[in-house]
Hints:
Layout: E1 4-5, E2 7-10, E3 16-18, E4 28-29, E5 36-40, E6 48-50, H1 58-71, E7 75-78, E8 81-94, E9 97-105, E10 109-116, H2 123-128, E11 133-138, H3 148-156, E12 162-165, H4 174-199
Parallel strand pairs: 10-11
Antiparallel strand pairs: 1-6, 2-3, 2-4, 4-5, 5-6, 7-8, 8-9, 9-10, 11-12
Bound molecules: zinc ion.
Zinc ion binds near residues 30 and 51.
Amino acid sequence: MDFKVPFGRQNETNALVASALADKEQQYFCPLCNETLTLKDGKIKAKHFAHKRGECTYDLIIHALAEQVIIENSNIIVEDSVINYVNPLKEAMINNRRADAVVDSVEYGNLIIEITVTNPLTDQKLKDYDNLNVLEIDLRSLEKNLSIETLTDQVLSNPNNRTFYPKEQFVSKSKPDNIAYALIAGVVAIAMLLIKNILFPSKSKKRY
Ligand SMILES: [Zn+2]
């Protein structure tokens, strides 16, 4: 089994570094179990981190890092809106189910965040959460050799990989405003044309 660790935690800076950008002179650790990683720089295979034990999987590491991204930030995109949050907690028990993260959002109060890397959120889990607001972020289609910046972006800012439950609870913020602005702008433009025509009637007709 050839398991590739997507990121290594650099010894000195603690920064997560993608294997492609890793430096042979540095020491790296598994971001999940902290085991020392070996950087393989093969001629045939792409540069990658090797993990001696088989307990951490690529998916588990991506899942754990995605949770960490939620914990270390304070806002997330849903459809056309930004949800701002405080007090993020990971691996929190809600109604006897383990939620990947729970945040206190300004707009929705408690918001459960579920990160899907392998198994999608089940109807049963949603039912167990009762009527709480849940945001599922689906990372199943992520490319394998991604950077930490891409992962962060996919977790926080891709409006196309997430679903808000219950759907009817989500309030689309900017769309109604945009429509309202467009209507107001249209009305103002027509009114200005009318006023202009009243104040400065076109003289061209009088020529004939
Ligand atoms: Zn590990």
